[in-house]
Amino acid sequence: MSRTHDELRESLGAYVLGQLDDADLLRDVEQHLAACAECRAEVAEIGPLAAALKQIDLDDIRPVGVVPPPELDERIRRTLPQPVHGLRRWAPAVGGVLVGAAAATIVVVALPEHDPPAPTIITVPKVESVDGVTASAGLVDHTWGVEIKLTTKGLPAGERFEMWVEGDDGKAYDAGEFIGVKGKVITCDMSASVLLADAKRFKVVDARGTEVIAADLPS
Hints:
Layout: H1 5-10, H2 12-16, H3 23-35, H4 37-54, H5 58-61, H6 72-79, H7 91-104, E1 122-123, E2 128-129, E3 134-141, E4 146-153, E5 160-167, E6 172-179, E7 186-192, E8 199-205, E9 211-216
Antiparallel strand pairs: 1-3, 2-9, 3-4, 4-7, 5-6, 5-8, 8-9
């Protein structure tokens, strides 16, 4: 039985966190991402927050013998601002991490009256990759250059990869490097000192210089 767009979109949070244990569902989500620009943009948007949440070790931050009051979850939900588009659907998947971290200490934060606008993420329509690797990307056009939000899975663990952005002037601009992780979705915020209007393509190469991920950038 095929899954609908909404059903697959509900699984994006777990996908980004690497928590899709159902192999059939994981396959369906990856196939859907290859064809759905809207969902690829959502993955690119929530990827950085999911990556930050993965770094939280609750055993390190939870005081021994401290039990959060039963109403804490609801109090936190009332205090937090409304989620931006694309975060609401996957919040339940990471809610346990948020509440667990809040149980360690309660911090009162004075929120601004108006949140700054989120950056506009431009979806890269077609990202190509070698066999066994899936990838999607979004772009943010900055005044200082271009930011590339790359989400990928299937790269060899422990191997170092470099991203380069090719400019219209024929030059290659360094956008940073990262290391592959076995069986995990990797979300990287890469950046290069070339304006999006002057960039035509990005590529990711392995330690041997072999191209493993690449895409033309929308003009």
